[in-house]
Design the sequence.
């Protein structure tokens, strides 16, 4: 697979600290269905994950029927203090067409509650 050769080139030449390049690798592996390699790239501590990194890995797991893992990653993202959690949640629904499950909705309500914005969660 050409993608794995590119990944190898990235590692050998120490380009694996670049966020956009790692995001492209995560996206490629997720689209190929190789979630183990996508997760290896994502778990690399050589770069700082951004909203796109989180969105790609969560969506990748969700698209391949790994809902529990996607929710677990979403919870991990929230624990890391990613302020763009709501944007990521919205993009998984609107961009990737993933129907939200109850656990994901609960995570969003929890995130909004912690931010003092329960009114945005529709909880009264």
Sequence:
């Amino acid at each position: 697979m050409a993608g794995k050769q590119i990944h190898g080139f990235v590692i050998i030449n120490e380009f694996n600290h670049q966020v956009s390049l790692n995001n492209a690798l995560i996206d490629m592996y997720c689209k190929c269905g190789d979630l183990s390699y996508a997760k290896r790239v994502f778990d690399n501590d050589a770069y700082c994950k951004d909203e796109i990194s989180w969105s790609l890995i969560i969506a990748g797991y969700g698209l391949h029927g790994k809902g529990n893992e996607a929710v677990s990653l979403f919870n991990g993202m929230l624990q890391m203090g990613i302020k763009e959690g709501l944007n990521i949640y919205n993009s998984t629904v609107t961009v990737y067409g993933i129907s939200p499950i109850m656990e994901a909705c609960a995570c969003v309500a929890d995130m909004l509650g912690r931010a003092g914005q329960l009114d945005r969660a529709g909880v009264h």
The first helix runs from residue 2 to 12. The mean pLDDT is 82. The chain has one domain: 2-121. The CA atoms of residues 18 and 32 lie 21 Å apart.
